Amino acid sequence: MSKDSVKLLNFWPSMFGLRVHYALDLKGVSYDYQEENLFNKSKELLEANPIYTKIPVLIHNGKPICESLVIVDYIDCVWPGSHKLLPEDPYEKAVARFWADFGDKKLYDAGSRLIRAMGEEHKKAGEDLKWALMKIDEALGTIAPGKPFFGGDAMNFADVALAPFICWFKGYQKVGGFVLPGPEEWPNLYKWVDAVNSVDAIKISTPSHDKIAEFAEVIRKRVIGAA
């Protein structure tokens, strides 16, 4: 739909890069994609993000935008369309930003430690991940009772930020030994997962859950081999 030059630099299993994919696809923005090798980063990536030299990077008309939540915010401003991700109401906007940040500080941290850590630290990571998912279940029931998304009937900023973690659940279970409680314990979370997975724009870029689990297994083996 957009005639602008839009390009995404990313590494396929990255939940941070998936946020950008999801935002662009929900908006119907056409874009080019460049897969990055994180062990041999492209000159374009290093020049586009010289501070952190990390993916994802969105390049819009030659100008780079870095950091996933910053990029999603940018996309929402540049291509508002009929599907706004950030609510207009200041309080609702603050709540959406809070839960997006929660994904970075709690979900990603716990999931990463679960795959990489050993012994007591590994056990603690599993407990932390369960706590984080429980809080998301509770938040969904409070913020949007009876609705499938944080945004109510449609995905908003918080949904886009948290949804990429869904495809990592199988990896957390297979590699990290995480046991995901059933829908009777977390009904809101399961309803949300089903709703996210049914969105056509989400299906476009979401990698196979099995492939993600295999990737997580590779990470775990490298950690064990280096220990």
TrEMBL record:
UniProt KW keywords: Transferase
A GO CC annotation given for this chain: cytoplasm
Single GO MF descriptor: glutathione transferase activity
Xref: PROSITE patterns: GST_CTER, GST_NTER
Catalytic activity as recorded in UniProt: RX + glutathione = an S-substituted glutathione + a halide anion + H(+)
Pfam families: GST_C_2, GST_N
SUPFAM superfamilies in the record: GST C-terminal domain-like, Thioredoxin-like
EC number: 2.5.1.18
Keyword Transferase: yes
Ranges of residues in domain GST N-terminal: 4-83
GST C-terminal domain location: 89-215
Highest taxon of source: Eukaryota
UniProt-recorded name of the protein: glutathione transferase
Species for this entry: Selaginella moellendorffii
